[in-house]
Amino acid sequence: MAVNHYFQGGKGIGNQAEKRLHEDIIIESLKIFGQDIYYLPRTLVNRDLVLGEDTSSRFDDSYLLEMYFETNEGFAGENEIINKFGLEIRDDTTLVLSKRRFEDHVASKATLTATGRPNEGDIVYVPLLKSFFEIQFVEDQEPFYQLGNLPVYKLKVTRWEYANEEINTGINTLDAVEDKYSLNEYAYRFQLEYGQEALTGRGSIVLEDYHDYSTGQPAFLMNETYTGAEVVANQSPYAQNLDMNTEAGYDTVGDLSDDILDFTERNPFGEIDE
Q: Would the CA dihedral through 95, 100, 104, 106 be positive or negative?
């Protein structure tokens, strides 16, 4: 045998007991120096097999784990940059997570797209920063086979850009993000009832049938207090949607004199139409 069989059996230094002790020390170190971070696995609802994305994905569960910031001198990446779309925040960092802790508390309970490991596209919530981060890449071979073992995952994450995903974890701090930033108009609807009377100032009205017989689904009515402008205004202090509408003249309903494009013309692109 080429290696010394008193120290190893050809699969790296250390027996199973020593590897277990090594993992225990790593977990204890993460509990001492790490942060409590929520792991939220992504649930795919309507995946586009061509583009490889799902615009209807949601997050239904959360798991509290201890993780360590490997980039302890600040965020990596390009940080805050200004491009043609406005201010963009690219805060990147690396989180160290114990493999055993993930397997015991997440992989054995959650439904993961790629089973047994953290998935790219899943998100984490850092209470210390009050921010969500999306997993871009999972490094599972660093450090490289210490004691013939791979005890940790290194999650390469970047600040998450919310895009109307549903967040229903049962934890108010996490779920409040959807309530505050969602542009989904279905959150502003209420279901019609059948045969009920709604009181008015002068009497009562009978509400419509609550079933849509063509689909068998309940019928809904939009709350009249819902306006897209109000929701967009609450999106972000850096949002420029409403400012652009004002400069383009689109916020003056019925007045086309200040509009950049006059859509009443045959050719709204401003070229000569002969």
A: positive
Buried b (16+ CB within 10 A) or exposed e, 142-153: eeeeebbbebbb
- Residue 92's DSSP bridge partners are 76, 158
Do 197 and 151 belong together in one domain? no
Instruction: Tell how strand 166-167 and strand 58-59 pair up.
Output: parallel
pTM of the model: 0.68
Q: How far apart are CA 69 and CA 91, in angstroms?
A: 13
Q: Give the residue among 156, 78, 88 at the shortest CA–CA distance from 121.
A: 156
Whether 112 is in a domain gets the answer yes
Quick: pLDDT tens for 181-240. 776 666 666 665 554 455 555 555 555 555 555 555 666 655 655 555 555 555 556 566
- Say whether both 85 and 188 belong to one domain: no
Strands (E), the chain: 35-40, 58-59, 63-69, 76-83, 86-98, 123-126, 131-139, 152-159, 166-167, 189-191, 197-199, 204-206, 211-212, 217-218, 220-222
Residues 90 and 77 in one domain: yes
Q: Cα–Cα–Cα angle for 269, 86, 173, nearest 5°? A: 120
Shortest CA distance to 162 belongs to which of 246, 270, 236?
236
- Show the domain range for 221: 183-237
Q: Into how many domains does the chain fold?
A: 3
Number of H helices, E strands in the chain: 5, 15
Q: What is the pLDDT of residues 229-274, one digit of tens each?
A: 555 555 556 566 666 666 666 566 566 666 665 555 555 555 554 5
